[in-house]
Amino acid sequence: MTESLFFIFATMAIVSALTVVVTRNPIYSAVSLVITLFSLAGIFLLLEAYFLAVVQIIIYAGAIMVLFLFVIMLLNPGKEAKFLSLTDPRTLIVTLLSIAFIGMIFSLVSGSVNYIGEVMGSVEELGTTRNIGLTLFTKYLLPFEIASLLLLVALVGAVLMTKRNLR
Amino acid sequence: MLPIEYYLWFAAALFAIGVAGVLLRRNVIIVFMSIELMLNAVNVTFIAFSRQMNNIDGQIFVFFVMTLAAAEVAVGLAIIVAMYRNKKSINVQDMNLLKW
Fold it and tell me: Which fold has domain A1-78?
């Protein structure tokens, strides 16, 4: 069951990620990215990271993608003039390098399977909201506060950036 | 549970697609989306290892990566809008103000 679900989600994620890169219309790219993010939320669920799966849907598929779609529709960029073509040497080189990268990771991971070892202990309750909260507000309290500061800086920066006359 | 290798292979493929998108596309919004793809691929790796090692620290790290991605997208899209106002273009190659 887990296995077939993983393959369904992984295939969906890979295909829609490819669509993000190869499609010409930015709106289609954004919608494909939403599908990728939803499949990734499913994969997080299979890995028993329940809290992060929900956060993935709320933050990425909700907030970030709305921002992307908003900017795409605001700027209405249309289609790219010079688009990916298979005869362009740049496209070929990048594709070959990406495939080489995947192959490298494949062989690296396959070669070190013996060192990764078995799943440790019982992991029924690892990714629940309770556990995440307990760790976040004790061990990682300072990074959490710094993250809130980062969000404040981003907020001020984004507002300032869109002012018409910066003087 | 599936062996962790499957998750690592899947994350590597997603990351490579993101890198290819950043290198190939000239639309800066698509470049941003490809960066999000790469961040998500790394998140999958973090969560897979967190599950494997039975240690929650990886998931906390993913939480921070998501915070960072939200901040990055907000500022980045504001920069794109500001650039479009000046240059009337969202092509990466038109953004060369700082080019020597």
Answer: Four Helix Bundle (Hemerythrin (Met), subunit A) (1.20.120)
